[in-house]
Amino acid sequence: MTDFTHIDTYVFDLDNTLYPAHCHLFGQIDRRMSEFIQARLSLDETSARKIQKHYYSAYGTTLSGLMKEHGVQPRDFLDYVHDIDVSVVPQDEGLRAAIAALPGKRYIFTNGSVRHAENVAGKIGILDLFHDIFDIEAADYLPKPHEDTYHAFNRRFGITPSRAAMFEDLPQNLVAAHALGKTTVLVQSDADWMEDEPEDKRPSRPGETYDHVHHVTADLTSFLTGLKTAA
Question: Where is this region: Disordered (predicted)?
């Protein structure tokens, strides 16, 4: 069993981490980001897609680039891109039981909005298991992987990094967590709809390893149920 007896705080990313990437929920968000850019900047689909991915790579999120380069109001963007069909996300009793068994505090740490996190986690059936949600607004719109945002998260909830574990699907979002002393867990996927993501921002695939990642898994529920935790 993997020894997590030193962990008293469990931090989870939301998208493609708490639900399986192959359900394609984030694919809906991805398409709506392109649609928003097409309409707001009067661009064709190809040009909008290019801008979307460039800003994602350069600024950490597409939203950050749109705010800095075009003065887009974050609420307009977030409300539009998160207006999605969550019926594709499966309710997951196994994951619920695994998270409920974790001792200590549990948080969602997302570059999305609280509304989106509540919507998705509610559909999975795990929302009530989390003590709080730290979203992009709480981060003052400075997204992961910026290290200042991790410090802000830790301050908000009084987290001791050496006693915290962070779960993410994007390896670059675990760099700062590792540097601050957290145990890092990478949730990998081979979902093919993510093939056009920028190479420096794409989700990790099974078999890939990183110096700043302590553990990897393609099955979050199995990983959590296999932990040796504090009594």
Answer: 190-211
